[in-house]
Amino acid sequence: MKRSRFLGLFLDEAGQHIEQAHAQLKRFEIYPQRPETLRSLMRHCHSLKGMAATMGFEPFVELAHRMEGLLRELESRPRLWSDELTPLFSEGLDQLSTWAEQIAEDGTPAHTEVTSRLISRLDALLNDGLTPLPRPQLPDEPEASAQCWVRLALQVSSASPTHRIVSTLKRVAKLGHVRRVRPPQLPVGDDPQAMELEFELASERTPQALRRRMLRFAWVSSVELSAISRESLNPAVSDRPNVWTRVPADALDWIADTLRELAMENTVTPEAGNPAQRAAGDRSAFLIRRLFDRVEELRLVPFMSVSHRLEPAVRDAARRDGKQARFCIEGGELGLDRGLLDRLVGPLRHLVRNAVAHGIETPEVRLAAGKAAEGTVALSVARHADRILLTLTDDGGGMDTAGIRRAATESGQIDAQEAQELDQQRLLQLAFRPGVSTRDAADGLAGRGAGLDAASRALAELDAVIEIRSTSDRGTRFEIELPVGQALVQSLVFSRDGQLFGLPLRSLRRASPAETAPDGIEIVDLGAGDSKPSENGYLLVLDEPERDVALIADEVIGRRELWLQPMAPVFSATTYVNGAAMIETGALALMIDPKRLLSRPW
Amino acid sequence: MIVNRPAEAQSALMFRLALRRYAIPLRRTSGVQDLGALRRIPNSPRRWLGLTEWSGRVLNVIDLPHLLGDRAVERAKSIVRLREPHSGMALYVPAHLGLTELTTPVPVVADEPYVALGSGPDALHWIHLDGLVAECARAVV
Question: What is the dihedral of CA A344, A345, A346, A351, to 10 degrees?
């Protein structure tokens, strides 16, 4: 077997198994006797062992095997317990994660003194370390989420009822799980522009909160909620377990690509056909668009999914320095494009390691300062309008400003007089300069003055703005703000009059050969006024509910995932272009904002 | 270079256009390079020259002479990249740039793109970047 061929798959799946095993371990900590939790943990260890064996990563196999063995023992003798179990499994998973990272960087997993000791401890527990203990009083599991039947009265524009329904359901889906939707009925009362939408919603929120949130939708005029008892539910629906299927990200890309091709194929539908044919064409285009949107949503990854890649970094750093630190994430449910998330993980890992290495004090120092022995490194993520705000805090001793000033001067980054004149914010920013480190000696985690510099450069590529606040003895806070507008956008790149443009695929209904332009369609030409369109060009029909409008394209370059960089705010209101992106040739494509485009006279 | 000195001792990028001599505070800039490929924006205001690429980043280029009501006399074509809060922007400066150390106090006039320091043909015109960008916004509305 060629290892390289399957390496990506191995790393991807191993990462997911480790992440899910960590989640199960948290449950195990609360409900240690639950057989399903034990079995789930066992399954993950077993899968990790099997995958690693196929790849020939022996130490990986050995550790996963020992962990699985101990879990089997616990399953067969459920009254046995040790306080060391959870930390030991956690260390084991962290070690597997570390090895996976080494493998990703072309390394080979190898036993060290630490891993040999880890395996010895697992063996010791298995052989004689488990003792029968009275079962602890366990908390009850939370009840299943509340379910209710919702009836919304919607105000709709007569031309776009379907759009309104879809956008309503999309927003409701953020409040809970929409299980069933009753086909909407038109009209309501005497008002031809009102309709009712009914659906079943399972949500953790209270009915009052749900009502309040849904009434915020501008087009919702009333909300009726009625609770559904579990008995009254259709058993076929209510008792159906959530079935999960893991799908490789590539498969989602493939589905999106195929849908795009299907959308293009749809252009074969003769524009000049009879009204029924045109309606059918529009309907299928709409359905393709819905499918496409759903696939796009599936590509979003909850921010929480990076925790398994950051948590071990915190634990490792703490272990090496003889510190105690825990890591927590807030707002982890926020979905981000996986491409963006992948680019964020590296710099965040540097920052959390740095927070432990330079921020969190040893337990003795913390206790003497009146703090808990265990320090906290917390990462929160939130979205504010068109920005993402990441906040990383630690409750350690704060940054060593005198040390940074000295290190920056000694490394030649700044002269002594300038260093004295800097305000605190600028002084702290110097920690991001190459070669600036307050550690006397470098170790595996910190001290070379390169980590923060690399993190800073990686974040700068994402157009992030970083602010640092640090208070002596109280800790440090990094605020990293990223534009959401700078995002990966699935786009159709085309040229007109020698210039490149990008059109978000979600705004494209279909592309038709220019000669098949139907009567009555409104044409928007982005070229100079006297430039004739190419005879072999295309019409890119925009997905607008109330207008038949198309852009002229001389040539369709193809579909691209473009990294959109937004316009400077001062100009953004002046143009139909909302940003630009570089394509593979290095040329800049202007990204069209269809809404702004159509708000202008042409 | 990071500097945070009192107004009477500021480093500045200095250049001359046809009518006036100008200075841009160095601490508000993050670099200078020759103007490369420029991507014009259809139907955009004249003061917005277009977009250019700088180490993988897309910058919005302001036509500085046009905004200042001045014109170029040299063949040089530089762009000066600005720092936060205008980090997505660059100024097109068609002139040779020099460095100067300004020791006289610079009055800040709210919303004005520049202020004249002294009088006569050699008076230096100190560019207030926030005022300049505000002027740019006014011009494009």
Answer: 90
